[in-house]
Description:
Blueprint: E1 6-14, H1 21-24, E2 25-26, H2 29-38, E3 42-47, H3 53-64, E4 71-73, E5 75-76, H4 86-95, E6 102-105, H5 113-122, E7 126-129, H6 135-143, E8 149-151, H7 161-173, E9 177-180, H8 187-197, E10 202-203, H9 213-223, H10 227-246
Parallel strand pairs: 1-3, 3-4, 5-6, 6-7, 7-8, 8-9, 9-10
Antiparallel strand pairs: 1-2
Helix pairs in contact: 4-5, 7-8
Amino acid sequence: MKLLIIDAHCHAGKGDGFTGPWDTRASLQKFLSWSYKAGVQKINLFAAFHSDYAVANAEVASIVNSTPGKFFGFAFINAVNDRGRVFDLVKTAVTKYNFCGIKVHRHDARISREICEAARYFMLPVLYDVMGEVPMIELLATEYPDVNFIIPHLSSFSDDWRAQIAFIPMLERHPNIYTDTSGVRRFDLLEMAYKRAGASKIIFGTDGPWLHPKVELSKVFALTNNTADLKKILADNFLKLTAKARSHQYKNSFRKVPVFDKTDTALSNEYRDPWLAA
């Protein structure tokens, strides 16, 4: 039986930086060929790093909607640069581009309530790269239990063992916390996550277009040969998390539109525990 395979984590389009491939250009030219040969049928796309995600999301939308049925799309949001316009950006992504999720990266800024409230309103999952900042996940899971969060790379693309080992109990404990397989090199920890949290909490992704889908897929097939679990990891979990967004169920929710004003007051970039000395 041929399994449906969805790559849930792939960048696309041009960035406006020039420090590395992550903010310069995420070309799909080779990657689509690699994916086809590896057996990947559908790909979830979001922007490369950019200083204006309204521009970057529009470019991704042109790719996503150029081949209906081939791609999904997530809206990339910067909690600081997009402050005060998050709802409008997400609304455009959902209603105009047919995107079905939000992408946030700690490299840009720490995730905000404004982003979480927009995700809640439109019933979108949030793919948030915490860059090893694991304690934040506890706040997300408990403050927004009705929002699903995908924490990629077992919480650390940089292979931070301490972060990943601390993340797995959260993955196991919280029903709205998920992870993806992209870029995970410590297979023993990926196996631990699978055994403790189960196949229902793990999603296949590559972090393309830079990581090869066949290499990334090999980790999934090394985890298990159980067909039911493979179906969950390779496609069903992603489809489940995006189902409400793809069917625009938010239209029937009668939720109040979240309002966050644009302000010049800086968001804190650091944890400030009032019981700890500065």
